[in-house]
Amino acid sequence: MCGIVGYIGSKNTKKILINGLKELEYRGYDSAGIAVLSNGNFSSFKSVGKLVNLEKRTKDFETRGFAVGIGHTRWATHGKPTELNAHPHTGVNAYVVHNGIIENYAELKKELLKEGALFLSQTDTEVIVHQFEKNLKDLKNAFKAFEKTISELKGAYAILLVTKEEENTIFFAKNGSPMLIGINKENDKYFASSDTPLIGECREVNYFEDGDYGYVTQNELVIYDKNNTQKEPHFIQLATNKLSAQKEGFRFFMEKEIYEQSSVIADTLLGRLNENEVFFDELEENFFEGINEIKLCACGTSYHSALTASYLFERYAKIKTSVEIASEFRYRSPLMSKDTLFVVISQSGETADTLETLKMAKQSGLKTLVICNVDNSSMVRIADRAILTRAGIEKGVASTKAFATQVTVFWMLALHVAQSKKTLTEDELTQHIHYLRAIPTSVHVEDAMHERIKRLSKRYLHGHGFFFIGRDVFFPLALEGALKLKEISYLHAEGYPSGEMKHGPIALADPELFTIALLPQHMLYEKSKSNVEELSARDSTICAISPLEFDKADDFIQTKEHPHYMLEFFEMMVVVQLLSLEISIRLGNDVDMPRNLAKSVTVE
C-alpha cells in the first residue's frame, strides 16, 4: 500500500527520497510526492501516476548541504488519485506524510474549518498538519504540539512531519502501520515503511512499536512509547543484499518469482526435516498441548493457503480446523475458546484486517501463531510464535512464491501436529517427508511447459469469463488461480468446487465461458472428470490441467505423473500462475503493478 520515506542529512536528499520510493513501488500506488526543507525554505513536488512523472517534475531541483526531506507513494483511500490529494500535505509552515487511516478525521476537520483552516485535499491525512499547526499556536512548542496532535488522532498511522518552526527536525509517530528508522556511519537518519529503501543506505535499523513517537535531528533520536515514557532505540542488523530485488533478465518480477519458487521452497524446507520427523525450532515441544482446535485467519491469497491447510490439518493431524476471512471475523463477535490455536497468515505481516484479528485473539487469551514472510513485522512481534516462510522479497503485487511457501509450511506443520498427536505412523511420516523433499522439483519451470502455455494463452483473451474448478485442496487452488487471473488480466474469473457447478453456475456455460479444470490423478479424479464432462456437454470451452489425457478437453496442459496429490497441487499451481501471467502480458498489462491493487494492504 502507501509507502513512506524520510531523510535527514547532508547527502543528495532528492535522490535519496526518490530512490527510496522506487524501492516501495511494488506495494502499489497511484501518486507520489516529496517535500524538502533546506535553509529555511520548503520545496514540494507531486505527481499522479508512476514515479517517472515525479522524476520529471524534480529534474531541475537539487539539494546541497544539510536538509530534511519526506516522501510518499499514495494509494487512494480518501479522495481520488489527484495531485491535490497526493502527499505530502501542507499547512502554513509544515508538511506531513501518512500511511493508514485517521478514523476521526471528519470531526477534526469540521472543527478546523470552523477555525479558518484552509483544506486543499479530500484526504484524511491533511487534518494532521492543520491540527498540528493549531496546537502549535497554543503551545508555542513544536514537539509538544506534535505530541498533543498524536493524542487526538484515532486510527492507524505512520506519520512523518516537518515544520519551519524546527527546521532541522523530523517528527514521527507509529500506530498500527509499519515504520522503521536507520542510521549510517555519518549519523544520517533514514525513515521508511519497509526495509527495502534502507538496504545499502544503513547497516542498523530500529523498528518502531505501536504507540511510539518522537523526533530526530542531526544529532538526536528521541523516542517515547505509548505511555509517554522516553525509551532507548533497539538497533538490529539490516540485510545488505539487493540482488533478489532485481529482475535478472525476466520480463517481470512476477515471472522471476514464479521461477524462484523451486529455490525458496528448498529454503523453506531447510533445517526442518530429517528422515522421519518434521520440526520447527520456532515452536517448543509442548506448543500444541491442550489445543483441540485450530482457527486460521487471513485475507486474499493467504486465505487460500489457509483453506488448503484446513484439509491437511484435518486429514493428517485429525484436529478440528476452521478458516476465517479476517475482514469478516473482526466484526461478527466471534466465540473464541482457550483450547484454540489462532493462526494468522500474511506475506507482509502488516495486513490491517489480519493484524486486528490477531490482537483480538491475544486479548481473548488464545495461543497465537503467525505464518509470515517478513521478520520484525507487526504480526511477528505480536504473536506468541512465528514461522517464517523464507520466500525472500516478493515485488510482484500478485503473490506467487509467498503462496507456495505458505502451503509448504502448512503441509509441514500438519505433519508436525500429527507427530505430537500420533495420528500418523512412522512409515507414513517418512513417506510424507520424502514427498516434501520433492516439492522443489515439482515447481521447477521447464521451458517446454512455459512455451506451451505461452502459445495457448492467445486463445483466452476474450469471452465472458473463466471458471477455475477443482476438488478437495484443488478447490482452494482453483480460487487462487481465478484470483491471479483477475488481479493481473482484469478478466472476470471465479473459482468453484467442481461438484458445485451443477448447483447454479453451470447456467453460464457456453463456448465463450472458459473452464480451467484441475484434474489430479490422485485426488477424486473420476468425480472431477465427470463434473468437467457436464460443462463440456453444455459447450463450455475446457482447458484441462492433468497428468492424464482428457478427450473432452478443447485444450490440454499435461503435467507430470507424481506419487502424491500434493506434488500435483504444486505443479498445477505453477501452471495457473504462468497461464495468468501470459494472458496478462498478451493483453499489454503491467503485470507487476496491476491497477487498484497494493502489495501490503495496511488499511481496512
Structure description:
- With 604 residues, the protein is of the alpha/beta class.
- It has three domains: 3-240, 4-Layer Sandwich (Glutamine Phosphoribosylpyrophosphate, subunit 1, domain 1); 244-443, Glucose-6-phosphate isomerase like protein, domain 1 (Rossmann fold), CATH 3.40.50.10490; 445-604, Rossmann fold (3-Layer(aba) Sandwich), CATH 3.40.50.10490.
- It is built from 18 helices and 25 strands.
- The strands form four sheets. An eight-stranded antiparallel beta sheet has the order 3-2-4-1-10-9-11-15, with helices on one face. It has a seven-stranded antiparallel beta sheet with strand order 5-6-7-8-12-13-14.
- Helix 8 (300-317) runs parallel beside helix 12 (401-421) and helix 16 (474-489) packs parallel to helix 18 (565-586).
- The chain is globular, with a radius of gyration of 25 Å.
- The N and C termini lie close together (11 Å).
- The mean pLDDT is 92.
Topology:
Blueprint: E1 3-9, H1 13-23, E2 31-38, E3 41-48, H2 51-57, E4 67-74, E5 89-90, E6 94-102, H3 105-114, H4 126-139, H5 142-152, E7 155-163, E8 166-175, E9 180-183, E10 189-192, E11 204-207, E12 213-216, E13 221-224, E14 230-231, E15 236-237, H6 253-259, H7 261-269, E16 293-298, H8 300-317, E17 320-325, H9 326-329, E18 340-346, H10 352-363, E19 367-372, H11 378-382, E20 385-388, H12 401-421, H13 426-437, H14 439-442, H15 447-456, E21 465-470, H16 474-489, E22 493-497, E23 513-518, H17 525-537, E24 541-546, E25 555-558, H18 565-586
Parallel strand pairs: 16-17, 16-18, 18-19, 19-20, 21-22, 21-23, 23-24, 24-25
Antiparallel strand pairs: 1-4, 1-10, 2-3, 2-4, 5-6, 6-7, 7-8, 8-12, 9-10, 9-11, 11-15, 12-13, 13-14
